[in-house]
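Hypothesis: this fold can be encoded by more than one sequence.
Test: take the structure tokens below, design a sequence, compare later.
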């Protein structure tokens, strides 16, 4: 996780890890949530196990709500800049 410490944000880390994302609107925390949900859905689990996994996401969401908000505000800022810099 040295790269994450060096870059101080999930956006910068994502750009460092995958240069093709540079300049693109990305949602790294939302993507992680989607991947977690997909993994739970695809895993061969019984209903009660699957529900326990979904319930286990709640603390993660509480910890990541700030990062999820940053994803949205960063995307809005980038979109705003693109819309109004074209004039």
């Amino acid at each position: 996780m040295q790269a994450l410490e060096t870059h101080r944000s999930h956006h910068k880390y994502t750009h460092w890890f995958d240069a093709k994302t540079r300049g693109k609107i990305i949602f790294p925390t939302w993507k992680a949530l989607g991947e977690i949900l997909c993994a739970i859905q695809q895993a061969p689990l019984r209903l009660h196990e699957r529900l326990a996994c979904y319930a286990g996401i709640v603390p993660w969401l509480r910890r990541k709500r700030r990062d999820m908000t940053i994803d949205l505000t960063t995307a809005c800022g980038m979109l705003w800049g693109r819309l109004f810099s074209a004039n």
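Confidence is low (pLDDT under 50) at residues 1-7. The chain has four helices and no strands.
Hypothesis status: open.
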